Amino acid sequence: MKYARLTKEQFEELHKEFINFLATQSITGDEWEEIKTNKPEVAEQELDVFSDLVWEGVLSKVEYVEHISPQQMHLFHFNKKYMHVIAVKLKNDIDITTNEGFDWLRGNLMDDNVEFLQAKKDYSEDKNADKFKLIHQGGAITKGELYNYLNKLIN
Question: In terms of domain of life, where is this protein from (predicted)?
């Protein structure tokens, strides 16, 4: 498995897509029940292959990922050739994961306690694996509003 198996809830949401996936392999509903009962290792493999296909589809469309912790914020934008990150570091004890802390940051972006850094990094051989790693480490897929706002502000 390249990424991670979907959760039970995700499989339930993608029930129709999973049925279509099985159908592309000429597996009927009855055959699937038989595979689950008599060949659980094959059923596990099918679940893993489907999970990877879903992840590939999702990751290929991801353009922005945010990772916010109490004192830092990392905002990633995935260009065609490289990823660009804007990092915001706080030098005080404000927690930007709270509403109050985030409001403070919004109102004090030019404060001496706020430091901006940015960097560019080339992808490894697998761009989607790079994205997945960031998400797996706690990043959230976004539409990039915060990244674009800060990018305009500091560039």
Answer: Bacteria
Domain that holds residue 18: 8-59
Residues of the chain scoring pLDDT < 70 = none
Q: Yes or no: say if 109 and 90 are a contact pair by the CB < 8 Å rule.
A: no
Is there a single domain that holds both residue 26 and residue 93?
Answer: no
Amino acid letter, 61: K
Q: Which residues contact 37 (CB under 8 A, 6 or more apart)?
A: none
Prediction pTM value: 0.87
| Phi, psi angle pair for 63, to nearest 5° | -115, -25
Whether 146 and 73 map to the same domain: the answer is yes
Q: State how far the Cα of 19 lies from the Cα of 47, in Å rounded to an integer.
A: 11
